[in-house]
Amino acid sequence: MNSPYFGEAHHRFRASLREFLEKEIFPHAREWEESGEIPELAYQKFASQGLILPALPNAYRDGRPRPFNVPDHEWDIFFGIIVGEELARCPYNGVVWGLNGGNLIGCPPILNFGTQEQRMEYLPRVFRGEIRFCLAVTEPGAGSDVANIATTAEVDPTDPSYYLVTGEKKWITNGIWSDFATTAVRTGPPGSGAAGISVLIIPLKNTPGVRRSRMRNSGVSASGSTYISFNNVRVPRANLIGEENKGFAVIMSNFNPERVSIATSAIQMARTCYDEAFKHAVFRRKTFGAYLSENQIIRSKLAGMLRRIESCKAWLYQLAFEVKSRGEKVAYQDPYIGAMSALLKVEAGKTLELCVREAQQIFGGQGVSKDGVGSIVEQMSRDFRVFIIGGGSEEILDDLGIRVLVDKARKERLNGKAKVKL
Ligand SMILES: Cc1cc2nc3c(=O)[nH]c(=O)nc-3n(C[C@H](O)[C@H](O)[C@H](O)COP(=O)(O)OP(=O)(O)OC[C@H]3O[C@@H](n4cnc5c(N)ncnc54)[C@H](O)[C@@H]3O)c2cc1C
Questions:
Q1: What is the pLDDT of residue 415?
Q2: What number does the ligand 1 atom closest to the CA of 184 have?
Q3: pLDDT value, residue 312
Q4: Are the CB atoms for 52 and 103 separated by under 8 Å?
Q5: Residue 414 C-alpha to ligand 1 middle, in angstroms?
Q6: Which DSSP category does 61 fall into?
Q7: Residue range 218-265, pLDDT digits in tens
Q8: Among residues 233, 228, 245, which one has the least CA distance to residue 165?
């Protein structure tokens, strides 16, 4: 279909990326998901294509090109969306997150709020595939309520150039094999809420006081979901990202692009469910002497899926265009863009949820079987839930989105610029 958002360069990029993924990644994805790990060689191949932090500015890429030699001046948010869409064609989302789930959320705080020294020390090595990052915010006692985290970083009384970090982090994607965790810690007094949070780069490998254990979730096995304990871990104060006690804004700034990225994947996964169900209903499965698609109630399911998918996609591209037009750094600071990113993520998650359900119904018993024609949909039925919980859950984001619009309307009324007429 013709598109105002994607040009020739985007189409070429998509074709090259698809060819690479279909040759090097997708054929092995099931095996990696089942073993819960991606071989180092595969990770290095992925890195060698520039696919780790594909949007990283030239200054931190060591002179290496962007993926598939896209010139810097041509790169825009739509190339990033293509990366998200093409990766999400993988039926095993654990593999997608295993390849890049940690770096993509653990590195932006360094890029956007770190010192030049921190950027130069870490980002080129991440890009080359030499080190890996994860983002450690969630704790056993604080998930949605980020301002309530309990992991503390206190200045070491024996050497004030260090912090001593103590606490626990839960469900940390890639944590088990990451070299560093971009970690939310409390540097303010107990009860200081959002005003007492800082973000620290904590080395994980061979660090005294760090313990890591794998977590078993219902899907995404190859994503390396990890429980991390810190017990009096000495961390240089030079590893602070941004200012002390100003970390809440750093964490929040990560969320808008992350939500757009989660929505991108969810929409593509919903499309896979639709495609699988369509093939099954139209060309494969006959009941009572006719293909499933001969029944109006089955066609109605397919129509319902496609309507939701195409609506979400149009919304995603329009939002991305708005972000591109205003510049990513500026746009993502705008509460309105934040609200739209949150609501889009909710809608994409609900669309995925619906499509998984309807596809499983169309597959019948095959939709819950780990082998055979319905196995992709079965896998997605275990992977999809985290899209509705992680990166801000449905309940929190719906409320966030609408609160921004309510506040905006109230302010406009107070300023005499009311758009809402009563
Ligand atoms: C596979 C996986 C990977 C993850 N990866 C990472 C990672 O890499 N790094 C990281 O830091 N975290 C990660 N997380 C954690 C994730 O971000 C949290 O699970 C999420 O923020 C929700 O927190 P919670 O699970 O503690 O739920 P809770 O905050 O306990 O919420 C439970 C339920 O109550 C609802 N709820 C909570 N408060 C309210 C309210 N005020 N009003 C209405 N409803 C409410 C929520 O929407 C949710 O449905 C991951 C989680 C999973 C499952």
A1: 87
A2: 11
A3: 98
A4: yes
A5: 35
A6: T
A7: 999 999 999 999 999 999 999 999 999 999 999 998 899 999 999 999
A8: 233
List the domain boundaries for the chain: 8-127, 133-245, 248-411
The reply to whether ligand 1 has any atom less than 6 angstroms from the CB of 393 is: yes
Q: Is 143 in the pocket of ligand 1 (CB under 6 A)?
A: yes
Q: What is the mean pLDDT of the chain?
A: 96
Secondary structure class of 159 (helix, strand, coil): coil
The CATH number of 248-411 is 1.20.140.10
Cα distances (Å, whole numbers) of residue 175 to 32, 58, 214: 17, 27, 8
Closest approach atom of ligand 1 to CA 217: 1
Q: Whose CA is nearest to atom 44 of ligand 1?
A: 395
Count of residues in the chain:
422
The dotted CATH code for 8-127 is: 1.10.540.10
**Tens-digit pLDDT profile for residues 294-350:** 999 999 999 999 999 999 999 999 999 999 999 998 999 999 999 999 999 999 999
Q: Which atom of ligand 1 is found nearest the CA of 135?
A: 9
Give tens-digit pLDDT for 54-78: 999 999 998 899 999 999 999 999 9
Q: Which two tokens stand for residue 106?
A: 């653990």
Burial zone of 29 (CB within 10 Å; 0-12 exposed, 13-18 middle, 19+ buried): buried
Residue nearest to atom 27 of ligand 1 (CA): 143
* Residue in 96, 132, 138, 398 to alter for ligand 1 test, most ligand atoms within 8 A of Cβ: 138
Question: How far is residue 62's CA from residue 123's CA, in Å, rounded to a whole number?
Answer: 10
Comparing CA positions, the residue from 240, 253, 157, 160 lying closest to residue 198 is 240
Closest ligand 1 atom, CA of 175?
8
According to CATH, the topology of domain 133-245 is Butyryl-CoA Dehydrogenase, subunit A; domain 2 (2.40.110)
Does residue 84 register a pLDDT over 90?
yes
* Angle in degrees, 0-180, between the axes of helices 375-383 and 335-363, rounded to the nearest 10: 140
Q: 81 alpha carbon to ligand 1 midpoint, in Å?
A: 24
- Look at residue 334 in the predicted model and tell me its pLDDT: 94
